[in-house]
Specification:
With about 220 residues, the chain is an all-alpha fold. It has one domain. Helices cover about 80% and strands about 0% of the residues.
Length: about 220
């Protein structure tokens, strides 16, 4: 059974506001700590918004706020698209990927304190966990198919293309495992293939979970 509309609206609002506040905090800290002699303001802004974590948290926040608007003002093309199960499920796949990749590959690289630690926790732990719970309790089940997976791969593919192209031009990469200057393009290509396989595996699990939850709800 899905949560009632007021509860879903509240959860959507909480997660979206938390994500936006954490992104804003990280942006302020990032710009404060940048080295102005080695990077222009525009370059720093572009660099900040080249992190998959930042883009995906913004995607989640915008999607959730759009779903709030869609629930309050239905029957618009955009709101109908945002309220679709495959749209919300794509966000679930991406934000859970953020949490898992950070936990497995990045958490040990840097110790954070203060507001940076708080914002980091929200972006990599709170939002992924809360959105997954939101997906379970608030997104319609039984509407996904394995055919949706190909479409879900577009966003990660575009992201990888962007950061690799930008890195080749600037020499700056947001994550060490895609740093072609350090590891070479062959190793980076292998890493990208492995991440793609992980995304596909996660998508398969998501669709399977959707079908299982749909069956459970028809028998309750």
């Amino acid at each position: 059974m899905l949560l009632k509309k007021p509860h879903a609206l509240l959860l959507e609002s909480i997660i979206a506001i938390a994500a936006l506040c954490a992104v804003a905090t990280q942006f302020a800290l990032f710009m404060h700590d940048r080295n102005p002699t080695s990077q222009t303001t525009l370059g720093a802004v572009i660099g900040f918004f080249s992190y998959f974590t930042i883009l995906t948290n913004l995607l989640v926040a915008i999607t959730l706020l759009g779903r709030v608007w869609g629930r309050l003002a239905p029957h618009h093309t955009l709101s109908e698209w945002l309220l679709r199960a495959d749209t919300a499920s794509a966000c679930a796949l991406y934000i859970v990927l953020v949490g898992i990749v950070y936990e497995v590959l990045l958490r040990h690289l840097k110790t954070l304190t203060g507001m940076g630690a708080v914002a980091n926790y929200v972006l990599h732990d709170f939002v992924p966990i809360m959105y997954l719970l939101y997906w379970v309790g608030c997104v319609r089940k039984g509407e996904l198919s394995f055919g949706h997976i190909a479409g879900w791969l577009i966003y990660p593919a575009l992201y990888a293309s962007w950061v690799l192209a930008r890195g080749a031009y600037t020499g700056r990469y947001p994550y060490p495992f895609i740093n072609a200057l350090e590891f070479g393009y062959t190793r980076v290509a292998i890493n990208c293939v492995m991440l793609t396989a992980a995304i596909v595996a996660g998508a398969l699990l998501l669709v399977s979970a959707d079908r299982m939850l749909a069956r459970l709800r028809t028998h309750t």
